[in-house]
Amino acid sequence: MRNAQAVSNIQPRRQIYRLPRAQRVADIMLTARAVFREKGYNDAVIAEIALRAGVVEGTVYRYFAGKRDLLIKVVEHWYEEMLTDYDRQLHGIRGTWNRLRFMIWRHLTVIHNDPAMCRLIFNELRSGAEYRETAVFELNREYTNRTLAIVQDAMDSGEFRGGIPLRIVRDMIYGGVEHHIWAFLRGEGDFSPEESADGITDIIYRGLVRPGAAIDRGEQAIRRLEEVAERLEQASALVPEISRTIGNASC
Amino acid sequence: MRNAQAVSNIQPRRQIYRLPRAQRVADIMLTARAVFREKGYNDAVIAEIALRAGVVEGTVYRYFAGKRDLLIKVVEHWYEEMLTDYDRQLHGIRGTWNRLRFMIWRHLTVIHNDPAMCRLIFNELRSGAEYRETAVFELNREYTNRTLAIVQDAMDSGEFRGGIPLRIVRDMIYGGVEHHIWAFLRGEGDFSPEESADGITDIIYRGLVRPGAAIDRGEQAIRRLEEVAERLEQASALVPEISRTIGNASC
DNA sequence: AAAATTAATGAGCCTCCCTCATCATGTCCA
DNA sequence: TGGACATGATGAGGGAGGCTCATTAATTTT
Description:
By secondary structure, the first copy, chain A, is an all-alpha fold.
């Protein structure tokens, strides 16, 4: 122990590093993300976030209006990362069944990859009264609308029967997914995004498809053929010999 | 003001009424139900519950292990009331479609009649780590199993196609319902249990029902295409670039 | 009527969220 | 180069609310 401390009992303030606002905010948000992930919202303590971010509690409140605001910002940031290049991926997929299946699989995979973060969204963020004002709400809306656009297209083309309220389709897809992963989010067991996506897509597709169009074993066979064609098309683009031979089959 | 008070400044303890344990517990739970309904879990304050129940804060903790325990007991009590004579009602309904529709409608109606209580269950109770130990969890399980029994019966009789994982059916029905009523629970707008039940039942039923026999001319074409797909897939396995790219067929 | 039992009390502890007066540091300009 | 200024950062402390426990008092038992 140094002499000055021992005598005067005054703790010298540690060296203070002043960071530009943006940097400090980023630091705190990254730390907060980790702590929220580990502890959940209620058990996360601002003091710990501050400590691990290398600042004092008051500093957190300088940049965030409160604990709840911090949560919202953290989730928004994460969510925006997630949504990058969704559209580009979907763009390469053909056929209503495949596109629907992709959207569902994708959603399941995000949850599978970061359950703790999704817990925050489902359990904490969405319960709050201010959820509608959140950017997550709006981003989510856009995201689900992309799925509904697929359904709408299929209705327009006659593949799906008409007169189905889109809202209900959305609720059954995303509600079904959520309900499906509840146990996993509670840490009970695992699930396979692939199998689950197959099961959900199967029921939804059959529930919407125009009867008499493609039925029974024809249904399955056609779906499988679509998938094969899809994969072969994508793959063939990579192999000069094949693409020269086959040409573009997708038209 | 009475003299004794003015002089000694000692508040005489008000008359204490000692109630039998069961009575006190019932009183507190009923008050707690009201306060939780009005304020939600987080904004409900034990002191207020105690005050309105005519006891002091410590008394609440004499009968309940904590705030969370109180919530659980309150919800369990309410849930058990709800479930009375479900079976009897279902008994009088014939036909798979009608029975499914009844179960869905019933669920929607419960939510429609007591949104505040359902908010507690969906937003608070079910988020907690101890949900699985709850009686609500078990009661809910039994309840949804009744729906699955209807589906199973229909599969056995051949009305529904086989091989559908029951768990997914359950998730889509109850998840779909929940997602559907989210906005309503947040106090945004209303919904019609009848119309919603029709829409959900419609998709589920069609998603599960056994389709008619395959069409004649489709049959041959499909068989031929299947063979082609088979050969192409096998051939593609011989081209390293493709098999590396495609990988597992299921994603 | 004394003893035993147990319902009920309420002061007060503890943990957190959050505020704010104060201090420190980096920047700009004379 | 040094003083003024803007703003990053501090940390003690206020306040709310969940929860404890030693004490008091009503009721029952002996």
